[in-house]
Design goal:
The chain has about 230 residues and is an all-alpha fold. The chain has helices at about 35-45, 50, 60-70, 75-90, 100-110, 115-130, 135-145, 150-165, 165-180, 185-195, 215-220. InterPro entries: TPR-like_helical_dom_sf (IPR011990).
Amino acid sequence: MVFSGLSQAQGQTGSPCGDPFRNHYGPYDYRVTTPQQRAIVENVHFTPAVESLRAGNTSMGPGGDLDYTLNVYPNHHRALMSMMKFAVRERNARPGGVQFSIECRFDRAERFRPDDAMVKVIHGLYLIQTGKPADAITKLEQARELDSNNANVHYNLGLAYFDLKKFDQALESAHVAYAQGFPLPGLRDKLRRAGKWRDPVPVVESASPEVTMPESVEDAVQPDPQAAPAAD
């Protein structure tokens, strides 16, 4: 794959959060690069110590290395998650050593790739953790529109609905998330402790209708003039 940055005109340079389309290297879409391409940045700036917020690698703390990673890959899911955790841990939207606040990082990532559902999931999770469940629902519903088969979307929607005491919606989201294989029991446990958990109603398959044999070969192959065309 040949990397190519996007035009400066796409960057909305008037934003207080800067232009996510301009960087001395990249920027690139995290989702469509290979592990080998990502390793050029990750091996230096997104080491395990940086990701876990234990230390920086080329900077005094993790902030500088997370900044570098997110400048090259504005929608780098794991780096965005680490930056979110950094802000929550420090109780500061712009913790020490970082260039942009976490709100700006979400803004930049969403402007860079509006179709990336996981960016909106991480943003929604941040809003849940900072006590804004109504805003989280708005963001997570945007993610659901992009990827309705994402168990993370439904799980975190359930958490936000639970915080707003909308237990029916929380239960519905939980059922979808667990049906899609989400592994963490936290939402189910919350609903159980609140006395709101119910197991999903099993789907009962109806019995196959009795097959009537045609009286002749012609009856079996005769087309139906009212039949709808097959879907593409």
